[in-house]
Design brief:
Layout: H1 11-29, H2 34-44, E1 93-99, H3 105-113, E2 121-128, H4 131-150, E3 159-165, H5 176-179, H6 185-203, E4 208-214, E5 218-220, H7 225-230, E6 236-247, E7 252-257, E8 263-264, H8 267-274, E9 294-295, E10 310-311, E11 319-323, H9 324-328, H10 343-353, E12 358-368
Parallel strand pairs: 1-2, 1-4, 2-3, 6-12
Antiparallel strand pairs: 4-11, 5-12, 6-7, 6-11, 8-9, 10-12
Length: 371
């Protein structure tokens, strides 16, 4: 058998192999650099507009011995949060909150038309875990993605929060006829109040100046809605909610009042309440419970002044601007009878008890979707 002849190794090849081995050994045993650690921390530290970074403090690694920094402590001086009649000039942050059971394209289109700088606006939504709620969530997320990722810069909002409520809705059907039946009101509005409170308590931030409650079926408002309402310098103020419809009798488009929860109290309503049990509530807009309150819905006039404001005892929540300090003082939406009132009307009563007077604008209109 012939001998095997080995080829002599190239010195350059041996040198490169040695360098590669050294590099691998150093990579495996050397500690991570502080900059790399910092980058890893940044990746897991959550940033949120309501709070400082929320990643927990990590102890130094026994292997590397590197001291990792804890998340920073954020300081907020609420005395520096302004709530003025010139919110744009003072760069005041607005929180628009919407309980949503169905998604209406008109609502989203109208939202995008609001002229208040969107970089100062945070949106908050809460939706039920129902079939309709799931569909609404899907549609909402699609519009959000389109706006925030691909829309014009001026249309993009500061941040958007979506919550899913963890309690059952009072009604399975969201049809207008079912929602407004008198026998459904107490249970329905209890759940609505819980949804509003969950949304409010989760999203109200330390730099929020104004909270605009805007129902998901409000499809038309003036573009300057926020600055218009803020200019009145009222703790809470509500425009008049109407609905456009086709008048068959006169063969033309017309409009009619929609929200009857904005009112001034009456002696009749006070007397009715005095005879009620602790768990009973007064409801407005039903012939079976005539309260004879003065309803803002009927105080509008064709040539009325949009700047005319009146004091109210109850408010609706279709479109309601609230100074954030009113909520910070503890005014919320009672899901229980509060002086025989509930939800938004109970909120108005609670605000008054805290010294904040509600106001309404009979001739300043927003419009509700017509099913």
């Amino acid at each position: 058998m012939g001998s095997v002849r080995l080829k002599k190794a190239n010195p350059l090849t041996l040198a490169l192999g040695a360098l590669l081995c050294i590099f691998i050994i150093v990579f495996l045993v050397a500690p991570s650099s502080p900059s790399a650690t910092s980058r890893r921390l940044d990746a897991v530290t959550a940033e949120h507009h309501l709070s400082p970074p929320t990643s927990p403090y990590r102890k130094p690694s026994s292997r590397s011995g590197i001291q990792l920094k804890p998340p920073p402590v954020a300081h907020y001086n609420l005395n520096n949060v302004t709530i003025t009649t010139s919110p744009i000039e003072n760069r005041e942050n607005v929180l628009i909150l919407t309980p949503m059971a169905r998604f209406y394209q008109g609502y989203w289109d109208n939202l995008l038309k609001l002229s208040y700088p969107h970089e100062l606006v945070t949106l908050g939504f809460i939706l039920p875990k129902t079939k309709e709620g799931n569909q609404a969530t899907t549609e909402l997320q699609e519009r959000i993605h389109k706006t925030q990722k691909h829309g014009p810069e001026q249309e993009r909002f500061k941040s958007i929060i979506i919550l899913r409520q963890d309690f059952e809705p009072a009604l399975q059907s969201q049809d207008e006829s079912e929602r407004h039946k008198m026998q459904n009101q107490k249970a329905r509005r209890e759940v609505m109040a819980k949804a509003r409170n969950s949304l409010l308590f989760t999203t109200l931030g330390p730099d929020t100046s104004w909270v605009l409650w805007l129902d998901s079926d409000i499809i038309e408002t003036p573009p300057d809605l926020i600055q218009d309402l803020a200019a009145f310098d009222k703790p809470l103020i509500v425009p008049n909610c109407f609905q456009r419809y086709y008048d068959e009798e006169h063969q033309q488009m017309s409009e009619r009042p929609y929200d009857f929860n904005s009112w001034q109290d009456s002696p009749t309503a006070v007397e009715l309440a005095s005879k009620m049990g602790p768990d009973e509530i007064l409801l407005e807009g039903y012939a079976e419970m005539a309260t004879y309150r003065t309803l803002m819905a009927y105080l509008t006039s064709e040539d009325g002044d949009r700047q005319s404001a009146i004091p109210l005892d109850g408010v609706g929540g279709t479109a309601l601007l609230v100074k954030a300090d009113v909520h910070r003082d503890g005014a919320m939406f009672p899901p229980f009878p509060f002086y025989h009132l509930i939800e938004t009307e109970g909120f108005a009563k609670m605000a008054k008890r805290l010294g904040w007077q509600p106001w309404g604008l009979p001739n300043y209109k927003v419009y509700h979707y017509n099913e």
